[in-house]
Design goal:
Length: 305
């Protein structure tokens, strides 16, 4: 048997073994894909979810309304509770041992009930990308299995049909990222299945990195400063209620100087649920200290020269 014949056979076997476990998420051609990870439970990406319910389309053409059981937006993960009606849960690869550079992988998707199976190789491990809210997601698998529109949330498997990862992010240039199917992912999905949605402090702002902030300040004749430029503000969020504005430059949080969004996220992750965080802000040439409250604490703003 030639290599091409072996590959053709492998793709067919994966489609037969795993295809019934892959679902579409959303109506029409689907917003994305997902995979049955337990009886009555489908895992997908958080960015595929809108609201508390979603349409789930199975490989046999059946569709059902599923209830969102838990969402972790920062990790781009969600679990949908739905009647899986005999769609077998996908098998997990033991310890993710096959997820090595050069390993053959197969990507599956089912947007709108149209199953896709593609072949590729693991091109890198321990890659990182930013989730929907800008938090860094580490440890991802980079692979070359082509993925069309609506493929995010579908499974990445090995030749035996065992789950290696959950596809989540298109890099461009033919490369894609998947969250590895390790013990950490299983634990997160189990918690979401129980309805345990993680709660992390968030400011409610969109940020540009220090490089962009320096360029923009220089372009309008302002002194260059390291910091994170606020490019959007949720007026109902903690930062908006505290008085943070679009165009502000956040140069420190809790006394820690900031040059990267990850540094801000580390500060936020160390806060108590009802904490107040002091942000050092440059607004034009004026320097301010803005106190941002989380939970039930009362927000206030204090200025200084």
């Amino acid at each position: 048997m030639s290599v091409l014949e072996e590959l053709e056979q492998a793709v067919g076997q994966v489609a037969q073994q795993v295809g019934g476990s892959v679902v579409g998420i959303g109506r029409g051609h689907g917003r994305g894909s997902g995979v049955v990870v337990a009886e009555g439970s489908v895992a997908t990406n958080a960015h595929n979810i809108r609201g508390e319910e979603t349409t789930v389309v199975f490989a046999d053409g059946r569709s059902a309304v599923g209830r969102v059981q838990g969402v972790d937006v920062d990790a781009d993960l969600a679990v949908v509770s739905v009647d899986t009606q005999g769609a077998a849960p996908v098998a997990w690869a033991a310890g993710g041992s096959a997820a090595r550079v050069g390993a053959a992988v197969f990507s599956l998707a089912n947007p709108g009930g149209r199953l896709r199976v593609t072949f590729g190789l693991v091109s890198a491990v321990n890659r990182a990308f930013r989730g929907p809210r800008g938090r860094r997601i580490t440890g991802s698998l980079e692979h070359t299995a082509p993925m069309g529109r609506g493929s995010s949330g579908g499974p990445l498997v090995d030749a035996a049909g065992r789950l290696l990862g959950l596809n989540t992010n298109r890099l461009g240039d033919g490369f894609y990222l998947a969250v590895p199917a390790d013990a950490e992912l299983r634990g997160r999905l189990d918690a979401l299945t129980r309805g345990e949605t993680p709660s992390r402090p968030r400011l409610g702002v969109g940020l540009a990195p220090a490089r962009v902030a320096r360029q923009l300040r220089r372009a309008v004749g302002l002194p260059e400063r390291d910091g994170l430029l606020v490019r959007a503000v949720d007026e109902t969020g903690p930062a908006g209620r505290a008085g943070i504005r679009t165009g502000d430059l956040i140069v420190a949080a809790g006394g820690r100087e900031l040059t990267d969004p990850d540094e801000l996220h580390e500060v936020l992750d160390g806060l108590a649920e009802d904490a107040t965080l002091a942000l050092s802000v440059v607004r034009g040439t004026e320097e301010l200290t803005v106190h941002v409250a989380f939970g039930d604490a009362e927000a206030q703003q204090v200025g200084s020269a």
